[in-house]
Design a protein that fits this description.
The chain has helices spanning 2-13, 19-23, 26-36, 40-53, 58-71, 75-88, 96-112, 116-129, 136-144, 148-159, 164-180, 184-197, 203-215, 219-229, 242-251, 255-267, 275-292, 296-308, 320-347, 357-376, 380-387, 405-409, 411-424, 432-446, 449-462, 468-484, 490-499, 502-506, 521-530, 577-589, 598-605, 613-621; strands at 511-517, 536-538, 544-551, 554-561, 566-571. The protein is mainly alpha-helical. Among the domains are: 270-376, no CATH class; 511-589, Lipoprotein like domain (Double Stranded RNA Binding Domain, 2-Layer Sandwich). It has a five-stranded mixed sheet. Strand 4 and strand 5 form a beta hairpin. The chain is elongated, with a radius of gyration of 28 Å. The two termini are 29 Å apart.
């Protein structure tokens, strides 16, 4: 939308008789030429030189507004310069061509700052002066301000327009309105009609349609639409659909493709004014992947960075309150997993060996963030919306982690939210397996193990196969419930250990094992210390086994089943081999095994790349 407007404006400035260009000095002409060619870094240098000697130069001031907005992404500075440019334009008699240009620039600056009252005021000023106003510019501000009836009326009128530009933006506006109104059917209907109206050529429409299909429980269709988005003829969106794919593949338990989609997202060119927003989004998505992979330190660091950064919601439908909740929830769960890992280290180390100021920081941070989330979730609508399955974007909504909520709010409050969600989604049978699994986990947490197992068995049969991580999460607590009922079953444990072992740490579930060593002193010490870990429960007739042996004074620990199938092995270092082996063993045993192959990356963008998962994650972590 912005690109189309700017192209019209650039062509308008080429008309003869432009009083600004006619009166420009040679240096100012150079700056104007640099702006026309989008050479913003050069324009900044030359504009700063002009302003040093001529602070009232309109052209240099306008150039600085463009630079701060489009090159630096510094919206506050851009707004200062655009206001000053508007005042200086009066020296030329306020020619309409330049006045319109400044008004459009100001609109996008305040729009991206999420100052929607100011955005509407700019549109009002424009239309009061000129007859060629753009009504599409009103839909998003009205929607963001909660003026839904006005936004809907305008959207419906423009959707019937003969102007393709107006129709496309009307459909995008309407689907966003219905998405935030939590109307699954209307969101999906507007999306599909929008894809048809744009003939499947709009990246933006296809990307939004992907989110709408996800909301309507059409997960495979959501994936197909996201894949079509980055191949669309009209690249009118940032991210090219890869952000949607990261979340979809992660929920499906396809860590390879999720990492590959994030790597592809990192390579998509993003206009500089949007880069701070996309940097936050990429960090958040990487934090999700690292959390799922059991990389507790990296996940905590990334989600802390996102939590501490100022939120940018101007270009998204997310409210500031919802954005704060999502940011806090991601950080809290990473803190909780990090502290669970620290508890493991404490259990097999000498007393007080792991206590540090960093550990104190983690404990204090978890308490603080939990308190903030309790206050945010006091908003009943926000709480119930969070619990309703697939009601958010694929890159934000993950049913596999929703019930972490019970650790924050308790089972009673969470159970009430699930009940209300069930009422709101009663006409969607697709939602019921999710809600049954939520109720099942809450029953497990309360100690009602028989009810929990019964709910899990029935709901897992109806759950979409794509919801792999939610399935593995359920298998983890179902296996523990059966063990506690005296009905130990190795099969769910086996599947979890192969596919998503980090969920055992997230859920604080102990694995039933027996312990063996080669009877050397070091190996026996490793076994005795490992038995203290909260990740293992020394169990009679256990289906799994932890063994330790000493090889050239280096300890090796392995996790196998009774038939000898090996899940993980790790060795210690030459120094302090027992402790380093225990650290490496816990990292290996409770992290999914990810090995990227060439076909995984090629399936996304055709790039022939063969690297390990560690290399890919390291590459994404780098700036």
């Amino acid at each position: 939308m912005r690109k189309a407007l700017l192209l019209l404006l650039v062509s308008a400035t080429a008309h003869a008789g432009d009083p600004v260009r006619d009166a420009a000095t040679r240096d100012e002409q150079v700056v104007l030429d640099e702006l026309d060619k989008e050479q913003l870094i050069k324009a900044r240098t030359d504009a700063e030189k002009i302003l040093e000697h001529h602070p009232d130069s309109f052209i240099a001031t306008y150039a600085m507004a463009r630079v701060q907005h489009d090159e630096e992404g510094n919206h506050a500075r851009a707004l200062y310069f655009i206001h000053r440019a508007e005042a200086l334009l009066a020296h030329y008699g306020t020619p309409p061509t330049w006045d319109k240009k400044l008004l459009h620039e100001e609109y996008w600056i305040v729009h991206e700052m999420d100052r929607m009252d100011d955005a509407l005021a700019v549109v009002d000023r424009y239309e009061k002066k000129y007859d060629d106003g753009d009504d599409t510019l009103r839909i998003w501000p009205l929607f963001k301000l909660g003026r839904m009836d006005e936004a809907r009326a305008l959207g419906r009128r423009l959707a019937a327009s003969e102007n393709p530009y107006e129709r496309q933006h009307a459909y995008n506006g309407m689907l966003s309105l219905e998405f935030e109104a939590h109307d699954r059917e209307a969101t999906y209907r507007w999306s599909m009609e929008g894809v048809e109206v744009t003939q499947g050529k709009s990246c933006n429409m296809l990307r939004n349609a992907s989110g709408s299909a996800f909301t309507f429980f059409k997960i495979k269709e959501a994936e197909d639409l996201a894949l079509r988005a980055h191949k669309a003829e009209d690249h009118d969106c940032e991210g090219d659909g890869y952000d949607q794919l990261v979340g979809l593949y992660l929920s499906e338990g396809d860590f390879q493709k999720s990492i590959a989609a994030l790597e592809s997202l990192k390579a998509v060119p993003i206009p500089k004014r949007y880069r701070p927003q996309f940097a936050i989004m990429r960090r958040a998505l990487l934090g999700d992947i690292l959390y799922a992979l059991g990389r507790t330190e990296d996940a905590e660091r990334l989600t802390r960075e996102v939590y501490e950064l100022p939120e940018r919601t101007g270009m998204t439908s997310t409210s500031k309150r919802e954005a704060a909740m999502l940011r806090g929830f991601r950080y809290w769960q990473s803190l909780d997993a990090r502290l669970a890992r620290e508890a493991e280290k404490t259990a097999y180390r000498p007393m007080m060996a792991t206590w540090s100021m960093d550990l104190v920081r983690l404990i204090a941070a978890r308490w603080t963030v939990r308190r903030e989330l309790v206050q945010l979730f006091a908003d009943d609508d926000l709480l119930v919306t969070f619990v309703r399955p697939n009601l958010g974007e694929p890159d934000e909504d993950g049913a596999w982690r929703t019930m972490n909520l019970a650790d924050i709010l308790g089972t009673g409050v969470t159970r009430d939210a699930v009940h209300k969600a069930r009422e709101l989604d009663k006409k969607f049978p697709e939602a019921q397996p999710y809600l049954d699994l939520y109720d099942g986990e809450l029953a497990y947490r309360r100690g009602d193990l028989d009810a929990a197992v019964t709910l899990a068995k029935a709901a897992l049969k109806k759950l979409p196969q794509e919801e792999a991580l939610l399935r593995f999460r359920t298998l983890a607590w179902q296996a523990d419930a059966l063990r506690r009922l005296g009905q130990l079953d190795a099969r769910p444990y086996h599947e979890v250990l192969q596919k998503f072992p980090s969920i055992l740490r997230i859920m604080d579930v102990a694995l039933p094992v027996s312990f063996e060593s080669d009877h050397t002193a070091a190996a026996q010490q490793a076994i005795e210390r490992c038995a203290n870990s909260p990740r293992f429960s020394d169990t009679k007739n256990a289906p799994f086994k932890v063994t330790a042996r000493s090889i050239d004074n280096v300890i090796e620990l392995c996790l196998t089943d009774t038939s000898g199938f090996q899940f993980a092995c790790a060795r210690g270092g030459k120094e302090d081999s027992v402790t380093s082996a225990l650290d490496a063993f816990h990292d290996a045993a409770f992290s999914p095994k990810v090995a990227l192959e060439q076909s995984d990356l090629s399936s996304l963008d055709g790039s022939p790349v063969r690297v390990s998962a560690d290399q890919v994650v390291k590459g994404i972590l780098e700036p």
